[in-house]
Amino acid sequence: ANAPNRPAPGPGELVTPTGAALLAELAIFQQPPMRLHTIGYGAGQKEFEWPNVARLWLATAPGAGTLPSPSLPAEGLFIRGDGIGVLPAQAESGEQPKGYFVQLETNIDDMGPELYGAARARLFEAGALDVWTTPIQMKKERPGTLLSVLAPVDLEETIATTVLRETTSLGVRIHPVYRYEAQREMRTVQTPYGPARVKLKWVDGKLEGVKAEYEDCRALAEASGLSVRSVYEAAQAAAHGELGR
I need a labelling partner for 196 at 20 to 30 A (CA). Which of 11, 204, 221, 222 fits? Predict the structure, then answer.
């Protein structure tokens, strides 16, 4: 279930197998947007080096009840154990329009430009979903670079450690984020130069985009001696022809 865990010293069992299974399946391990109503605490009888206290928050998710939210759908969300928020109308269909992630950022002004490529490669190897840089202005008017990384929630510590190891950064900021996602479908179409995969983009059950896969087009272009652009256009045309668009 990719549930993050952190070993802690202590006598006896700290969590039951049933409790661990429930947390791994149901918890998203970060606080979603919510309107807090009340907080409750309960103290255990065992003595540990840390407070043996459990805390429960009761809240309303944006879009549920009377809480207005311009950024979330009115019918609210079901939160699955893998961190994906699913709209009630889409829970039965299996669509996954919303995903929870963490975004890691750090400002750098003392690293050679050639090292960013190496850091980017290591971050992708560590499981990052996306890595990008943005020019920024830093203190004493020095030009700098904002390094940003989008990653799954359970890889937060791994990605942060990779940033610190592969760059000159002394600290990493972490923000919980979410995104809405269109459905994606991969299909293979036949071009005059061979088969190529295309990615279909679906929104609310409607086809909204078709894009040929670059690597397939590049391989066919090398084999046929044509430009990648020519093969790409042929793959796009084949996809539109099969889809009747």
Answer: 204
